Amino acid sequence: MEQFPELSEHLTAELESQIEYGLLPDAVERLLAAPGTPQTIAVGQEPEVVPETLHWLFAWAAPAPEPHWLLGSERFVLIPPVMRTCKAGERLVYREPRHVLVPGLTVDGTVPLLPIPDPKPLQAQGRAVKVDIDGKEAVSLIEGVPSFNGRDVWIHPKARYYDDVHGQRGGGIIDVKGSVDIAANVEEQAQVWADQHVEIQGSVSHSFIEAGECVVLHGNTIRTRVNAGGDAAASMRLYTP
């Protein structure tokens, strides 16, 4: 304050003796210029914390969709097969714990105590995945298609079919524990069930498809019922379309 420089210097010196970090000299001047007006005269240093991070180390849909031009409009084409299997011993998921980059400081110069969040360790479903004792890393023990829901990691084998699936010619019901990849067509009231994923590279007509997680259809779909990501129990295994 220009009219009372001694008062400004005295107040600043007094505050500096009590505040170890973050004193704002301009705020002190404003306080002297307008007594009675609330002013923030010191601000501590905020801590910099990197939250817990989950790293997916497997690519379920690879390669990435490629642009394709058709009739002047851009669309994306997924190149089959989209489902990719992992190898035994492959690292699937890694949980990087929270860590503090800058601890922060209060205005009195102390380091604030940060709340410690509850740990969220990874968990393995079944015996096809191994999780370390700290729940930080999940590794596959078999070849198959991995899944991860943010906590649980599991792997199921992938069944492959290369011939058309006809519901009226026998063999028209496919029911697998895991994933199924059909590199052909599914026709005439066929039924395809999978607890994990279903991928059909051909067309599907007048059939029923159900997957506990994802369904990927590359061809045309005509009068077909498709359920995905619902009740993985699939209570009616002999549903009639």
Quickly list its features.
2 helices, four-stranded parallel beta sheet, mainly beta, 241 residues, single chain
What does the model show?
The protein is built from two helices and 23 strands. It has 241 residues and is mainly beta. Strands 2-5-9-8 form a four-stranded antiparallel β-sheet, with no helix packed on it. Strands 12-15-18-21 form a four-stranded parallel β-sheet, with no helix packed on it. Strand 8 and strand 9 form a beta hairpin. The C terminus is likely disordered.
Set down the secondary structure blueprint.
Elements: H1 5-18, H2 25-33, E1 48-50, E2 53-56, E3 66-70, E4 73-77, E5 91-96, E6 99-102, E7 123-124, E8 129-131, E9 137-140, E10 145-148, E11 152-156, E12 158-161, E13 165-166, E14 173-176, E15 179-182, E16 186-187, E17 191-194, E18 197-200, E19 204-205, E20 208-211, E21 214-217, E22 221-222, E23 225-228
Parallel strand pairs: 7-11, 12-15, 13-16, 14-17, 15-18, 17-20, 18-21, 19-22, 20-23
Antiparallel strand pairs: 1-6, 2-5, 3-4, 5-9, 8-9, 10-11
